[in-house]
Design brief:
- This protein has about 350 residues and is of the alpha+beta class.
- It has three domains: about 80 residues, no CATH class; about 100 residues, Butyryl-CoA Dehydrogenase, subunit A, domain 2 (Beta Barrel), CATH 2.40.110.10; about 150 residues, Up-down Bundle (Butyryl-CoA Dehydrogenase, subunit A, domain 3), CATH 1.20.140.
- It contains nine helices and nine strands.
- The strands form two sheets. Strands 1, 2, 3, 4, 5, 6 and 7 form a seven-stranded mixed beta sheet that branches. Strands 8-9 form a two-stranded antiparallel ribbon.
- Strand 8 and strand 9 form a beta hairpin.
- Helix 5 packs antiparallel against helix 6, helix 5 runs parallel beside helix 7 and helix 7 packs antiparallel against helix 8.
- The mean pLDDT is about 95.
- The structure holds flavin-adenine dinucleotide (FAD).
- Flavin-adenine dinucleotide binds next to strand 1, strand 3 and helix 9.
């Protein structure tokens, strides 16, 4: 498969060489070790300015650890917007979803920002804030004096982070975050926070397709290895037509997904991705990742169901792709509306 964009050689070696060896521990512990985060930082994972490069890093990480792909992605979606605002390097988390629900963002938006001195103070509770465990900075959607606005808060005693124990994307640093008058600055145009948050979410949607592509490639590699090495009734599994057809179809659809992601990433203008392409890529990717991880598990037999195995992890993680960054139904509705408008 061809690359989606260029990334530093050291980062490529880290994601393809070392990450597979620690992916299981990240999954078990629901946390990326400090040392690995520092290595990712050193190798440039948190300074990928161009979208094609960001998508490539997310894809390669997700072959073994979709959670690490997610950490790089969520930081990248925010970095695009706030990179110019931060003095010191540090991981950024995106805090939009509230306890009332994530689809109806505005209807559930209770977090508030009040002017204070030259800046603002943010107060409220967010859930499912990915990267929160590792973040130095938090991009927060709150109701400000002129309406919904994006703010940037730095980690301090006024920001409490409580890890969430999900079955999926374990290690993505997902947490409930409480802001108790946390100091913040504006990170966008006052009153246009929802639209600007959606721009970041569109990059996230395309990134979810890149996670999906990584999952498909990781699952396909495991399936092919099994088909080469495992013998049944005196011949390799790879000589049976059923498995051959399954992997061939997955590989063909993965090529189409790759082309769609590449097209959308290279057509992006700065942080702006075409929302239709991003939604289509996410919907297609999630379905394909679920299918590919199901097939890989099937071909592994009972071993494929072993707790913390690669195939079990890819199956669990592929499920999140239909919920995070917008539920599947919402995206399908959006695609249909665009089609009906012509
Ligand atoms: C692993 C993970 C990471 C996440 N990371 C972040 C993050 O970093 N920052 C952040 O702010 N949020 C994050 N989220 C939250 C995510 O954006 C929300 O989960 C998502 O928007 C859906 O919101 P909800 O879970 O509250 O479901 P709800 O909004 O309650 O919806 C529940 C279900 O109802 C159905 N539904 C909803 N609306 C419609 C509709 N219009 N038509 C038909 N069916 C509908 C769908 O099946 C949907 O799954 C993350 C979530 C997950 C799972």
């Amino acid at each position: 498969m061809a690359s989606l964009g260029s990334i530093p050689g050291g980062l490529r070696d880290l994601l393809l060489g070392e990450l597979p060896g620690v992916a299981e521990a990240i999954d078990r512990d629901n946390r990326v070790p400090e040392g690995l985060l520092s290595r990712l930082e050193e190798e440039g994972a948190f300074r990928l300015g161009e979208l094609p490069s960001l998508m490539e890093a997310v894809r390669l990480a997700s072959r073994s650890s979709p959670a690490v792909g997610h950490v790089i992605l969520i930081h990248g979606t925010a970095w695009c917007r706030v990179g110019r605002l931060v003095g010191e390097p540090g991981i950024v988390a995106v805090s939009i979803t509230e306890p009332g629900g994530g689809t109806d963002v505005l209807g559930n938006l209770e977090t508030r920002a009040e002017a204070s001195g030259g800046g603002y103070r943010v107060t409220g509770v967010k859930v499912f804030t990915s990267n929160a465990l590792y973040a130095r900075y938090f991009l927060v959607l709150a109701r400000g004096p002129e309406g919904p606005t994006l703010y940037l808060a730095e980690r301090s005693g006024a920001v409490s982070v409580e890890p969430m124990d999900l079955t999926t994307l374990r290690g993505a640093g997902v947490a409930r975050v409480e802001y108790r008058g946390a100091e913040a600055v504006e990170a966008g145009t006052p009153g246009r926070g929802l639209r600007e948050a959606l721009e970041a979410i569109n990059v996230g949607r395309l990134g979810y397709a890149a996670i999906a592509l990584g999952i498909v490639e990781g699952a396909l590699e495991a399936a092919l290895e099994r088909m080469r090495s495992h013998r049944v009734f005196g011949k390799p599994l790879g000589e049976y037509q059923g498995p051959r057809w399954m992997v061939a179809e997955i590989a063909a659809e993965a090529s189409a997904l790759e082309a769609l992601i590449r097209e959308a990433a290279s057509a992006a203008e700065g942080c702006r991705v075409d929302p239709l392409r991003a939604a289509m890529a996410k919907v297609l990717g999630a379905r394909l990742a679920q299918r590919a991880s199901w097939v890989a598990t099937q071909l592994m037999g009972g071993r494929g169901l072993a707790r913390w195995s690669l195939t079990e992890r890819l199956s669990r993680d592929s499920r999140a792709l239909d919920i995070g960054e917008g539920a599947r139904e919402v995206l399908l509705d959006f695609i249909a509306s665009r089609l009906l408008k012509g």
